[in-house]
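Page 47, continued from p. 46.
Same chain as before, 447 aa.
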Amino acid sequence: MKLTIVGGGGFRVPLVYGALLDRKERLGLDEVVLYDVDDSRQDRIGHVLDGLAAEKGVQLPFRTTTDLVDAVRDADFVFCAIRVGQLEGRVIDEDVPLGMGVLGQETTGPGGICFALRTIPVMTKLAETMAAHAPNGWLINFTNPAGMVTEATQRILGDKVVGICDSPSGMCRRVAAIMGRDPKALWFDYFGLNHLGWLKDVRDGTGAPLLEELLADDAALERFEEGRLFGGDWLRSLEMLPNEYLYYFYYAADTVNAIRGGGSRGSFLLQQQREFYARNGADAPAALADWRATRHDRERTYMAEARAAAGQEGEHDIEENSGYESEAMAVVDAIVNNTREVLILNTANRSALPFLDERAVVEVPCIVGRSGPVPVAVGEVPAHAASLISTMKDVERTTIDAALSGSEQLAIKALALHPLVPSVNTAREIFDGYRRRLPELAEAFAA
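Result:
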């Protein structure tokens, strides 16, 4: 099996490579290729990978390239996690709307739209390259905004694109831990779009509903991230457990004030990552130790703006070996070995959410086998959730069309339709601000 990692110099690549080391024999993996436009970043990460392999005592050779065709040719699986515009772009994504009193988080609100406008054309090129040189390959997409990127690339590769996000599965594991249950023995009734989903119930093997009891227990809610973020009163009003990113919708003004007081996470990561990649050296154990220390600092700030807005102190609940790399390995294992495992993934709706069309990419439980993910019907959902999902799906599709056409009119329309943008004039100001500060956006949307 040939597996290619696009974005081979990315900071989280060692997580994926470590998971591959653990599953090398089961997956029949014999070739790993790292592709990146920046060879120096791949060199830095390569030393970390050497350290991992030595530590585990497993040999899984990899090679690096800056030639996309060479990287994907005849690949069985292509993992992709890229950041077009690097972290400098993320800082601008967040800062421009914030200057107008509007939330600009990485994947939510105007920030997510601008990120998608830059990213979708690049991902479309990748999908076209795969169609030409790896027509039987699977694209496993980690690139944010994951829902929009998955839907845009499915227009080219169809159901051979699977979107991965570890946020829903992470929430489900935390809920299971509070309940004292094995997550694999529970059914999580989750539905939505990427970074816009809700857990409407949890059931055990008897079919008994379990979520209502958890939502009634304030002490239990205080023991995990989502319970602390949203608080018992609001969760009992919703009668569901929202994905953590919905905090930015339910408490947008609070989050804007918190970011203004403490700075955005993008600014923190920009400085941290600059320092990490500048410390290049050939000593593999030292590179691995440096990466682990940097990762801990990185992960503890995840969702920091939301926690600050909620008045929480402390760090993000860090889980070892349970992030998107585990989700990706589970998908590959399910396809290669036809395990029919149930995973929450981003894929075409078919009929999972009856108020959306069959090609709309949704984030729902799927049964995954040799033919890929098959979404499970969700059934009835609350009207407020269906309404927000429908609105955001329109925003996503307008953004995709804007990115592929270079239409300023569509880009402004996408911003104006977003629930977090207060007016059409504000949408125009935000787009103009992005275009002034992002040369690649100015070029793509030249008048």
